[in-house]
Design goal:
By secondary structure, this protein is mainly α. It has helices at residues 5-13, 25-30, 32-40, 51-60.
């Protein structure tokens, strides 16, 4: 999936509470700004969780593959 930055940020903003990660919805929401910065930096970072790293994996995979660049509207 490569829906682009705007779609990723919108998805983060509407994500439900993840009780396996956070003790409360309030605690999760307190981390939203940090998450948004991390997602925004995705295309510029060079770590293993970055777009360049994921792009290399995708591009070098010799098997069948499909790149989805749009997301379905699930609202």
């Amino acid at each position: 999936m490569n829906p682009g930055l705007a779609a990723c940020l919108a998805n983060n903003a509407r994500r439900p509470w993840e009780p396996h990660k956070y003790a409360s919805l309030e605690q999760q929401n307190a981390m939203l700004a940090t998450l948004m910065v991390w997602v925004t930096d995705y295309y510029h970072r060079t770590d293993q969780w970055s777009y360049p790293a994921h792009r290399r994996i995708f591009d070098t995979h010799a098997g069948a593959k499909i790149e989805h660049t749009t997301m379905l509207d699930r609202s």
